[in-house]
Each structure stands twice: as structure tokens, then as C-alpha cells.
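Q: Joint fold for the lines below.
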Amino acid sequence: MAKRSVVAARTGRRPEDFSFERKAFYSPAEVARILGVSDQTVLDLVHEDRLFAVQIGPRLYRIPLGSFMQFLGVPPRITWTRNPRGVVAGRRFDELDRRER
Amino acid sequence: MPFVRPARTFAQTLDEIAKRLARYGDVEAADEGTGIRRRDLSFVVTAPGYGMPVVATFEFRERYRRMTAGWLREGYVFEYRPLSPKSRRAHHEHGTWGIHQHCEPPGKSSDEHYQDVERLLEPTAEELGGLYDRGEQIRCLGLRRKLRR
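A: Joint structure:
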């Protein structure tokens, strides 16, 4: 049987471009249904490291929402603060030191 | 053991870490103090992100000091907090307590410090991410109390 290939969508897509139900995790079968491919194709993507999934049992995988979105071409949701002279991120250390002194 | 990140690849490593963490949810990352001797990094992840109700948060912070060989790590705060049921698993190195961990199982709030070994960000992120992925409840068995150094 010819193997069906799945090509990840080009980057720059928005989450609103996809109308499937949002969940924290998906099973390979759920992803297969959304993509319209077989379960085996999704497992192949996982084994080829093209789709990140967490193995939670010998034959049990879970695919986090963020990982699936990235596979679909939605850029990762990362907000960067780069401040060469700042110390805001470090305040947490100072807070902990003060509290636990 | 001193942990040094090479200065040349530091920024690229941070981008890779942020991308990896973004698999779990929305990431707020900060890289501050590169122009002074002390550099503070932070990655705060709200899972699962994408506008869904928050079920857990992750916090990864590191503090570095500039050296000729690169950036020497002086402390860290790695935390995983599931919100339902509310609990906490944390690995820290800071202040007078040095390396230690915290553990709060569901329904029990505690500020107890427990002994720990030194942790690195990437493997700890995998470990704590694994707890989230598997939906495991936080258990605090076998931990030993730490005395202040």
C-alpha cells in the first residue's frame, strides 16, 4: 500500500486558521483524524522527529497542543525581553533570598 | 560543579530552549544584564497556552556571572506548578540554602527545603515536562530535609 506523506504546513499560519477542538494534548488517533491521515502516518511523523510527542507508555503517545501547532506551521508563542542593563528577571532570586533568609 | 555556558553560543542556545518549551505552552522569556557582569535568564511557560485555561505553569530562571571562559552559573530556580490539584515541584540553588528542592503534594502547602543534586535547565525541563505530559500527581516520597549551610 502506498504510504501517504504529510507535509507540515508552511510557517506563518495563525492559530485561528485551524478550527479543530483545542485540547492540552492529543492522541495520535485524534491528530490523524484532524489531518485526514492514518494513525500509522502520525506515528511515523513522531518516530521521524517531525512531530514532537511524549511517550507515556510502551505504545502510548501524547502530543501537546503547542507541538501540534508548530507542526501545522504556527510560529511558537514566545515573547522575548532582552535588556542588557536590566534586572527584572533576576528579581525573583532576590525575592527568594529575602524570604528565605 | 561549576557550570559555564560559552558566550559565543549562549544566545542561540536560549532560542532553542525557548522553542522547545513552547511545545508545552506560551513562553515569556527574558535575557537581561548582558551588558553588565550579571546575566539573568527566565522562561515562564503557561500551559497549554493558545488562549486555553491555564492548567500548569513552569518557571526556569538562571543567574550567571561573566568570566573569561564564558558565563558561570551562580544560581537557578526551576519550578513546575500544576493548578488542579494545586501542587509544586521545584529545584533551586540560591542564597544561603544553596542547592535544594521543594515539594508540595496536592492539598499540602509547605516551605520545607529538601536535599537535592545540582540540576541543569534542559534535562530538568524534560523531567518536569514529563510530569505534566503524563498527568502525574506530584509525590514527595523519599526526600530528606536540608539544613541551611
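Q: Anything notable?
A: Strands of chain B lie at 4-5, 26-32, 38-47, 56-67, 70-82, 88-94, 98-104. Chain B touches chain A through 43 residues (CB under 8 Å).
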